[in-house]
Write a structure and sequence with these properties.
single chain, 55 residues, mainly alpha, 1 helix
Length: 55
């Protein structure tokens, strides 16, 4: 037996879902930038440490 009921999409839920995904993507971009800067600082500190030890 088939169900003939139509599925009515919840437009508000779709909008909330897409907003949530957009906030997550923006947060990922910010986190990636912070981590990139952190890695660069750590790398620079390691290079400075090795240079100081060579002298």
């Amino acid at each position: 037996m088939t169900n003939l009921a139509a599925v009515i999409p919840d437009v508000d839920a779709d909008v909330r879902w897409h907003d949530w995904q957009a906030r997550g993507a923006a947060s990922d971009v910010k986190s990636a930038a912070r981590m990139r800067n952190l890695v660069l600082v750590i790398f620079a500190a390691l290079i400075a440490m090795f240079v100081v030890q060579l002298n």
